[in-house]
Amino acid sequence: MAAGAPRIFVSHLAGVPVFDPNGDQVGRVRDLVAMLRVGGRPPRLLGLVVEVVSRRRIFLPMTRVTGVESGQVITTGVVNMRRFEQRPTERLVLGELLDRRVTLVATGEEATVLDVAIQQLPARRDWEIDKIFVRKGKGGALRRRGETLTVEWSAVTGFSLEEHGQGAESLVATFEQLRPADLANVLHHLSPKRRAEVANALDDDRLADVLEELPEDDQIEILGKLKEERAADVLEAMDPDDAADLLSELPRDDQERLLELMQPEDAADMRRLLSYEENTAGGLMTTEPIVLRPDATVADALARVRQADLSPALAAQVYVCRPPDETPTGKYLGTVHFQRLLRDPPFTLISSIVDTDLPPLRPDASLQAVTSYLAAYNMVAVPVVDEGGSLLGAVTVDDVLDHLLPDDWRETDFHPEEVVGG
C-alpha cells in the first residue's frame, strides 16, 4: 500500500467477513494480534484472529492479507486451519488493549483507551498501531463524560514492555531491528533455557528466518523444544530447501510426524527435496523461484520481483514456463534477467525477451557442477529441470556458499569492522 494509506480503527473490523480471492467467505475477524516494542515505538500488527465456519479461531498473518477495509478483509487464499494460540510477546488488540487505563505523557492525566488505529507502512507490507483514541478521566470506557481525543502511541504510557519486567518478550523486542543472522548469533550464545524462552516468544516468520541462520545443533535443539504443531508451522515458514535440510537431520519418525502436520502442498515440497542427495542441485534448490507463463508481461514480472520477502538472488531473474506455474511446472522455456526487465516497456511479453541460451541443470548435478555453472556464467541462481523439461526449482548462490564454507562457519563471530574500513 502506498504512502497515504488509509488509517483504520480496529473497532470497525470486529466481526467483518474475511474472503479469499474468489470471493468465498473464509470466516470473520474476532480480534487482531500485535507485538509490543520497547522504547515507546508503535506495536507491529502480526495478524488477525479469524473465526471460521466450524467456530474454530485461527491465526491469519498480515503477510497473507491483500486488502483491509471497514467492510471486509481479503486474503491470498492460503489459510492455516490450526487453532490460534497466543504467544508471550503477543497482545490481543480488542481483548487486551481496549478499555486499558493509560496515562497521557504530556499532562499526567489518566485516560481510557476506546479504540486504536492501524495503518500500513509506506512501501512495505508491515502494519503498525499508530494512533489511540482515548477518553480523559478515571471512569471506564462506558463513562460518557470526559474529553475524547486521538493521540500518537508514544503520547501515552501504560502498555510498554518495560512495565512488564524483563522476560523473554523484552529481549525479543530489544533485538527486533537485528538482521536474522545477527539475532541468530545472539541466540547461539544464550543458555539453552534462555534460548528456548526467546524462541517461544518469537513469531513464526521471525523464528523461521533466525533458524535458517543458526548452526545445525541449535536448529535441532530449538525445534525439539517447540510443540509439534508449532514446529510444523515454523518449518512451513522457512525456505523449503532450509526446512528440508533441517528435517533431514531428524529421526525418520520425527520427520513423518512433522510432515503429517504440515499443509499438504508444503509437505509435498519437503518430501520431494528430501528425495535428493544433499550435495546435488536437487538437494540444494528451493522450490519457490519466480515462475511466470509466457503470456505474462514485463509489468507482471516486475511486480513479482518487488515482493519484499524474496531474497536478492531469487529476485534476480524470473523463469518462464508453460502451465502449471507451480513447481514442478510445465515445460521450462528459459530465463528473463532482472536487468532486461528494466530495459523493456511494461507491456512487453516476457516470452519475447526470454534467454534460452543458458542450459539448466539436472537435479542430480553435483555441488561442483553447480558452483562451476554460477562462476562460468556470472549468475546468482541456476534453474533445475527434470528429464521431462519441467522446472523443479532453482539453486541460489547463498545456498552454494553454505555448503562450501566450513561446517562451523555459523559459530564464528562476525565483526563488521573487519569488512568496512578493516
Plain-language structure description:
The strands form three sheets. Strands 1, 2, 3, 4, 5, 6, 7, 8, 9, 10, 11, 12 and 13 form a 13-stranded mixed β-sheet that branches. The protein has a three-stranded mixed β-sheet with strand order 14-15-16. The chain is built from 15 helices and 18 strands. It folds into four domains: about 10-90, SH3 type barrels; about 95-160, SH3 type barrels; about 180-275, MgtE N-terminal domain-like (MgtE N-terminal fold); about 290-405, CBS-domain (Roll), CATH 3.10.580. The chain is globular and about 75 Å long. The chain has about 425 residues and is α+β, with helices and mostly antiparallel strands. InterPro entries: CBS_dom, CBS_dom_sf, Mg_transptr_MgtE_intracell_dom, MgtE_N_sf, MgtE_transporter, PRC_barrel-like_sf, SH3_actinomycetes.
Structural topology:
Layout: E1 8-9, E2 17-19, E3 25-35, E4 44-52, E5 57-61, E6 65-68, E7 73-75, E8 90-92, H1 93-97, E9 101-104, E10 110-120, E11 127-136, E12 148-152, E13 156-157, H2 168-174, H3 180-188, H4 192-201, H5 204-211, H6 216-225, H7 228-237, H8 240-248, H9 252-261, H10 264-274, H11 281-284, E14 291-292, H12 298-305, E15 317-321, E16 332-337, H13 338-343, H14 367-377, E17 381-385, E18 391-396, H15 397-404
Parallel strand pairs: 2-7, 14-15
Antiparallel strand pairs: 1-10, 2-3, 3-4, 3-8, 4-5, 4-11, 6-7, 9-10, 9-13, 10-11, 11-12, 15-16, 17-18
